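Support request, please re-run this one:
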Amino acid sequence: MNSIEEKVLKKTWPDQAEVKAVQKQFQDIKQFVKEEFGKKAGLMGSTAKRTFITGDKDLDIFVYFSKDKEEDFLEEKGLEIGKAVFQEFNGDHKVDYAEHPYTKGRINGFEVEIIPVYEIEEIDELKSSVDRTPFHTEWVNENLSEEEKKQVVLLKQFLKGTDLYGSSLKTEGFSGLLCEILIAEYGSFQNLLKKAKNWSKNQIIDVEEHHKELPERLKEKFMEDNLIVIDPTDPERNVASVLSQENYAKFVYNAWRYLEQPEEEYFFPEEKETDKEAIGEEIESRGELYIVEFDRPDLIEDIMWPQLRKLMRRARKELRKNEFKLFESDFYVGEETIKLVFDFQVANLPGKIKHWGPEVFHNEKHLRQFRKKYENVWVEDSRVTTIVEREHTDAKKLLEEFFQDDMKEKGVPENLVEPLKNRKIKKPELKGEDWLKYLMDFLEIGD
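Re-run finished. Output below.
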């Protein structure tokens, strides 16, 4: 490790007192669950593996049920136990939903989740993806030394500092387990970066060497994945499946940049001060920037974010088809509203456009049809050509048209159709601290 990494570890590696505090809170909850309900509980996640960053007080507590119990029973009893835990320890809680409903909240400063799972012996007995977690916890604790766990913490902080940490469908980045597997494969943060800067598309990592060569069925299964990291406990699963192409590319790029010139800012970036004047000047110096603003729908993030990405892909396709060029486009999710952001290089086009016809050679039928349809025709290169009226000349009007009538027919995701009926398409207002921070990043001001 270089001096920067040693300095970062001093700030991020949890000391023994913090680890003991985690264990004590877990043991108290575990004992209550055992005494009150006769159920076994286990600590999972990064706190169970000591791969957590200091201050991250997350307790993922699994309550085990026999695999012969019905799913309805597991869900009902799991919620009953979860609620009882929070009542016993005077914690606030709510019910959340993944594959099973579960309780989550705060107890004595810890973020606690009480999750019901089936107790299974083999990975092929899985009833839900959460049942796999104990196998991961066991594998990490058996295969990573304390020094390697420190390297995991270093990697996690690097990813947090570069906005690449997290495997939710909102973030599409690196999960904690993925970090642990990468360090197990390469031994250290430095070695990982040295390898990663030369990674190719569809890089394959198989730490347990489950496959001498990836079989055809898995090549097909992982065809859309950008990085393939075989789950050490499940040879049929890619741990990196959620990682987006852009975030994969950003990690490779950041690995190269950091090795060229290591800086602590990669781990702890300085927060940019918002500069309303600089934002306004940057917008003015480009083309036109429009936002489509509408009320935030009541959707869980794992549904909303993929649908917003799909919506943006569909809108960009429509703009490209009509030859409107973008510097960039993205979306901003606020507490109450969503803003689709379109930064145009060209937002207004001339009224006419060149239209290409068929090749002259051996194509008499098509030439006759083209001449019949258009008056002003000439030959350019080997094709007949004319000039026609452009259908759309104003990008804002095209956006207004796109978000009218039957939006679902145009590819707008169903959950977003109703909120978009009350949209506003306008130039951005430069107010609201979170929105201004977003614009600073979007316009890459201060990078």
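The chain has four domains: 11-131, 144-270, 276-348+392-442, 352-389. The longest strand covers residues 110-119.
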